[in-house]
Task: structure prediction
Amino acid sequence: MKVFWNSFITGPLLGVFWALIVATAVAVLLSFVTGAAFRPGLSGCLILGALAGLAALEIRAGWILVAGLSALAVALSYTGISPIHVSGDADLGAHLMAGIGFALALGWPMSVILHGCPRGPLTRHEWEEAVIRFLTGFGYIFFTAAVAIPFYVMVMTSLKTQGELIANPLDFTIDLSRGWELFRSYDELFRNFNFGSYLWTSFYISILTVLITLAFSIPGAYAVARLRFKGQKALSRSILLIYMVPMIVLALPIYIAFSMTGLRNSIAGIVMIYPVTTIPVALYMLQGYFRGLPAEVEEAGLMDGLSRLQVIWKITLPLSLPALASVSLYVFMIAWNEFLLAFMLLDDPSKFTLTRGIASLNSSEIPRQHLMAGAVIATVPVMALFLGLEKFMTRGLTAGSVKG
Amino acid sequence: MMTTAIPPKGTGPLARREARLAWGLLFPTLASVMLVVILPLLAIFWISFKPVDLADLRAAAPMVREDLRDADEAAPYIRYRIRNSSQTDPISDIVLSDMIPDGVELLEVPEGCVLQARALTCRFDLLDPGGRLTLELPVAVPGDIEAAEIAIEADQPAISGAAENVLTSGEFTLENFAELFDAREFWTVIGATLFYTVFGTFGALIVGLFAALLLNKEFRGQGVLRGLYLFPYVAPVIAVAFSWIILFDPFSGSVNALLIQMGVTDDAINFFGERPLALIMVTVFEIWRYFPLSFLFILARMQSIDTDMYEAADVDGASPFQKFRYLSLPMLMGILSVLFLLRFIWTFNKFDDIFLLTGGNAGTRTLTVNVYEQAFALSNIGAGAAVAVVILICLLCFSWFFFRFMSKEEGL
Result:
């Protein structure tokens, strides 16, 4: 390892790796944004990456590095050893974009990565810190791309026409001149595929699930958290055990029972089943929160002559509003996203939930942009809720399980 | 005289009242869980020993049609035609009941039938599979015969019967299990399940740990990135699964177009249709979708670690990797092992992801997908239940393990 503790070795090595990463990233990004053909080139990355790694040790001003690399990258993009190959018929703009984009993404981060590294031998600290900065940068690019690309493709596909999709699957530019025509898939889903009704069904089923779950789990969680009785410990543990049972194993007998009692294909059946899948987790999250509340306040209430139920209603619940909010949000999300039970228990298109409705779009006769528009319709409400209330959400998810 | 204070023995009335209240508060939850979790679990064991098909779910039932015959002639009669809808099961204890409308007089009540005021009730012992029965009752119609005909045919007779249902009968078989273990694909299913579970769990944990390390510092945009990285977990599975299918489509998917353009491959790759690749892809999808969960928990734990420790380590001259290896990692071991156990079981249980991505084709059929495949695609409910029993036995082993660990770790 000690061989690498030298900035003249580590610098160019990190430079080459970084150049390969950003060349790929920039090429993919430009392909998606412009629809033209860009691809990373190995030899160009080797040369410019190594050069950037060395130069960053000498030139501490990032902008000079970027300017120099830009000139080189644009010039090289007309040769066979370009870091990013541009298709032959592309104009100057494409070359400039590829060259400058690459140089920006290479030069500036390299000067950050090698910040504080002297020329020549490095101490262990300096070397590790450079490597960590490199890995951090890679992590940001990797995770952002991995998460964003599927969602980006989902949204963009829903805005295209069949012809455009087949002509060039890489072209995600949007023809703004089409105006409202862009949203044709959405319009058709609501007009011809009954998505308005699916949306409404999903919405009120989710709300009902939240209400029923809270009605059941609040008293249960309070009992487990506060009251002393035999089996309390065992119970608070086995709550989680229920979550270990796979849904498909339960779905089979439920399907049989519902078929025989005529509950299949009914909203009532769905509303009976959904809360049971969410009660255990809600109970678990709430009891963790209730335990954290000061018992003295409740005892004071008891001394003043309130009954236990009044204590829950007048003291515990108002104190646990944040927990109730995050539990509600989480339960709403589970019910909204639920697919398996809706798929198995609902056959009648007039009673479909949104997820079941999207599943019915998955056939070769229905164009893909409709399917993706359906996916967007299902995703947007849950995302909006989540982004708006992210604090509650993350706190709720980790509640009780992590001791600080 | 001194009396020593002795602690009360047993439970006092106050404690009993508290326990009663607790069980009362828990009752709705326990009852619903009993009904929807425990009962189905018992049912699964029962069904797995039953030779039952999807078609058997509709029990044999008697059907009846009623009409007035020979209305124009001298001797009109009411005719009931009773039929057994099932070709396989007999129906016993059939009861037919009907109202004879006003203006129609029954001339004769046949054997087995009773007329009380205007309510006619007939009983029959047995109707063979696919069997038919016709009942003819001569009537006199003094008034308008057409009105009577309409009145007779307007109201439907009620009929009921008891049929033996294979689900409730005493018929048992080991066929389901025998077939399951004999099938050569069973071991491929087990293999796919193990691969998916082990790599999916470790992958999600490691990727989650890496993501948590990235975001475990304050900087502008940290909140935005954290929100973004949670997207795969929060979005509906159906939406993201279909996006992946479209992204990796062999004919018009962007990824294939990209790979071809970059010169990585000459021909389009069928990511979700080729044998080893499809299983790897569904595992990658699982990692992609669930790393946010481990990320969230690990990050929460990281942020609760005391910073003093790191300052002390700085003073002692520990390098960044050493600090991670000897300080952070041991502190995170608790949450990591809890997450591992939870994720292991949840990945093992996962159904919808694979079902939506490949439908269990191309070597991606895990045990849970096999339940659906057997029960619904092949319409053999019994075989599906047998697979479910195998799953439950595996889970029992896991949870035994789980409980042994949980008592030591974190106290989750």
About this structure: Chain B has two domains: 59-163, 175-406. The domain at 175-406 of chain B is CATH 1.10.3720.10 (MetI-like fold). Residues 136 and 218 of chain B are 89 Å apart (CA to CA).
